[in-house]
Amino acid sequence: MYTKNGRPLQVHGNYVFSRSGRPVGQIRGNKVFGPDGRYVGSIDGGRLVYRSTESAEISSSFSVAPIAGSASANMAGSAIWGDEPNILD
Questions:
Q1: Alpha carbon of 28 to those of 12, 32, 52, 79: distances in Å?
Q2: What are the residues facing 32 on neighbouring strands?
Q3: What residue segments make up the domains of the chain, in order of their start?
Q4: Which of 25, 30, 34, 88 is the most exposed, having the fewest neighbouring CB atoms within 10 Å of its CB?
Q5: Radius of gyration over alpha carbons of the chain, in Å?
Q6: What pLDDT digit, counting tens, does each position of 34-76 carry?
């Protein structure tokens, strides 16, 4: 999976991690919610995209350990509707 602007993400089960291995969120349906339960973004065609119209949703919080980082290269950006999610790497 990649962000809207092409930054690589790692998916393990229902969890999404940044390239460096930090937990980004948990997949629930076609949306990803952060460890604090707040909306991170929506999954659209293998891309994680932030959509302000969906940002009011909140889920339960969770805890998951970081994983090993990845050396995946960036991918070209996408014209999908929405913004780049705010993910620390």
A1: 13, 6, 17, 24
A2: 27, 41
A3: 2-54
A4: 88
A5: 12
A6: 999 999 999 999 999 999 988 888 887 777 777 676 666 666 6
